[in-house]
Amino acid sequence: MNKKYIIAFDQGTTSTRTIIFDTQGNIQGISQKELTQHYPEAGWVEHDPNQIYQDQKETFETVLKETGIHSKDIATIGITNQRETTVVWDKETGIPIYNAIVWLDNRTKDICKTLKNDGLGTYVREHTGLVIDAYFSGTKLKWILDHVKGAREKADAGKLLFGTIDSWLIYKFTNGKHHYTDHTNASRTMLYNIKDLKWDDTLLSALDIPKSMLPEVKTSSSSFGHVQYKNIDIPICGVAGDQQAALFGQGGSAEGIAKNTYGTGCFILLNNGKDFVSSKNGLITTLACSLPDQPKNYILEGSIFIGGASIQWLRDKMQLINQVKETEHICNSIPPLKDLYVVPAFAGLGAPYWDANAKGTIYGITLDIGKNEIIKATLESLAYQTKDVINAMEEDSGKPLTWLKVDGGASANNYLMQFQSDLLNVPVDRPKMIEITALGAAMLAGLKAGIWTKQDIETIREVDRIFSPKMDSKTRTQKYTGWLDAIKRTRTINDAQ
Ligand SMILES: Nc1ncnc2c1ncn2[C@@H]1O[C@H](COP(=O)(O)OP(=O)(O)O)[C@@H](O)[C@H]1O
Ligand SMILES: O=P(O)(O)OC[C@H](O)CO
User: Fold this and answer.
1) C-beta 414 within 6 A of ligand 1
2) DSSP state at residue 194
3) Which residues cross the membrane (predicted)?
C-alpha cells in the first residue's frame, strides 16, 4: 500500500473541518470554517445545507493546497457529522427544499406530544431505542413535509430525498450518485429499527413519511462512493455520527468503554455490548459504529443538550469573558462555590430528564456572588449534568463506572476535568489527540481501505493526562445534593407555568 494519508471530513454543529492524518494517526493538516447558525424563532435552529457542502469542499481543497499533499496519495476519506440534523432535497436537482433543521431545534415538541398521547412511547423505545423527542430526525422530517409548500405531493411522488448530514455530503460529493447513510446515523432518526436493522414501517406510517425518501443504510466501515478531485477518485470508506465516531476513536469498539465528549453539548456513550438493553433511567440505546464482522453493538447514551454552548453564552450574550479558555484561570482563582448552581436548560433538558419545557435557571445567588462565581457555576454545570447521566448509566448497566475517557473542545479545560473526576470519584483520561472524532472516522475508513488493521488502531491513542479524584466524599455528596435540588426547583417552576 503506497498511499500515505487518510482524510476525515468532520461536519460539526459549530464548524466544518477537514483533517489529514498520516498512517501513524498524526495530524498533517487541518482546515476549518465556522458554520453560520440561524435562529428564525425562539427554539428554532437552522443551518444552510449549501453552506455545509461548500465549506466542506473548501476546507478539503484548502488542506490539500496548504499541506502540498497530492490527492493521489490520499487512500480514503471518512465522514463524521453532527447527528439528527435533517435535510430534504429534490432528487433531480439536488436543491434543498428547506434549511437543515438542527438537532437542537425543538419546534416539533407538539408533534412529539401527539405521538406520546397516541401511546407510541413504548413502541419507539423498544424498536428504535430512543425516547420520543424533538431532538431526533423523524419529527423534523415530518415538519418539513407538512410546512413546505408542495413538499408532501413531491415526496409522495418519489421526488424528494431525506438525509442526515452524512447522507447530504455523500450525495453532493458523489454528484448525486449515492444516497447512503450508516447504522449510527440511521439509529438517530427515530425511524430505524435497531434490533432488525431496517427502517420501521409502523413509525414511517405514524409520521406519514414515504419510504422512498430514505437512504440505504450501510455498515459504518464500508464503501460509500468516491470523491473526485483533480481527476483522482478517492473512496469514501467510513461514515459515522460524531459521538459514535469519538467512542470508536477512544477505543470504544470494546464492551465497557465509556467516553464523554464536551462540545456544544455533552455526549456520554458507553459500549454496552451485543445485547439490546432498554434504559429504565432516561438514557437511550443506540447503535455503535458497525464493522463487517461486528454489525450490531449497542451503546447506552446520555445526550446533554447544553455543554460548551453555555460557555459561549457567557462570552457572547452575557459578555462575562472574552475567550472561553479564560474560564479555567477564573475558576482556579476563586474559592470553591457554596450552593451556587447554574442549570443551563437553554434548550430544555435532555438526558436523563427529557424535559422540553425546562428553561435555564441560576440558584443560590447571595450578595457576595459576582461574575466569577457565575462563570464557575456555569462551567461546573457540565460536570453535574455528566454525573446525572453516569448515575443513570450505572443503574442501567448494573456496573459502576471505573474510568472515563474524555474529548471535545471543553475537555481542554483542566479545572473542569479535575472537578469532573472529583464529582464522579473516578479517573478522567484525556488523550493527546484532541481530534478524536475525526480520528474515529479516519480509522473506520482506514480499516476498510486496508491501511490499518484492528490491532493497528488500538495502538494509535495516547494519553495526555489522567485526572484523579481528590475531593472528600462528604463534600462530593453535599455538592451533588445541592445540584439535584436546583434541578428539582427548575423543573417545578416550569411545571407551574
Ligand atoms: N478551554 C475551554 N473551556 C471551556 N469550554 C471550552 C474550552 N474550549 C472550548 N470550549 C467549548 O467547547 C465547545 C467547542 O468544542 P467542539 O468540540 O469544537 O464542539 P462542536 O464539535 O460541538 O462544534 C464550545 O462550546 C466552547 O465553548
Ligand atoms: O456537532 P457536535 O459535536 O456538537 O455533536 C452534535 C451531536 O451529534 C448531536 O447529537
Assistant:
1) no
2) T
3) none
Protein residue closest via CA to atom 4 of ligand 1: 410
How far, in Å, CA of 372 to CA of 370, rounded? Answer: 6
- CA–chain centroid gap for 420, Å, is 20
Give this complex's ipTM: 0.97
Residue 256: Cβ-neighbour burial (10 angstroms; 0-12, 13-18, 19+): middle
And the C-alpha cell for 85? 440534523
Among residues 202, 199, 226, the alpha carbon closest in space to that of 215 is found at 199
| 377 vs 382: CA distance, rounded Å | 9
Closest listed ligand to the CA of 242: 2
Phi, psi of 3 (to 5 degrees): -75, 140
- Percent of the chain surpassing pLDDT 90: 86
Of 177-191, 208-222, 292-306, the range with the lowest mean pLDDT is 292-306
CA distance 265 to 408: 10
Residue 83 assigned ligand-binding role:
yes
Question: How far, in Å, is the centroid of ligand 1 from the Cα of 257?
Answer: 23
Instruction: Show the cell assigned to 1.
Output: 500500500
Place of cell 463524521: 80
Contact 31, 62 (CB under 8 A): yes
CB 258 within 8 A of CB 301: no
Placement of cell 483522482 in the chain: 232
Residue 378 annotated as part of some ligand binding site: no
**CA–CA separation, 276 and 274 (whole Å):** 7
Is residue 230 a contact partner of residue 270, using CB atoms and an 8 Å limit? no
Alpha-carbon gap, residue 336 to 201, rounded angstroms:
53
Work out which ligand 2 atom sits closest to the CA atom of 11. 1
CA distance 155 to 112: 22
Q: Kindly give the residue spans of alpha helices, DSSP state H, lying in 130-223.
A: 137-147, 151-156, 165-173, 183-186, 201-206
Could you give all domains of the chain from N- to C-terminal order, each with its CATH number? 5-239 (3.30.420.40)
Ligand 2 close to Cβ of residue 302 (< 6 A) = no
Mutate to test the pocket of ligand 1, among 37, 47, 243, 262 (most ligand atoms within 8 A of CB): 262
Rounded CA separation 53/49 (Å): 6
3-state helix, strand, coil in the chain (%, to 5): 35, 25, 40
Kindly report, residue by residue over 149-158, the tens digit of the pLDDT.
Answer: 999 999 999 9
| CB distance 310 to 342 below 8 Å | yes
Best mutation site among 10, 13, 14, 313 for ligand 1, i.e. most ligand atoms within 8 A of its Cβ?
A: 14
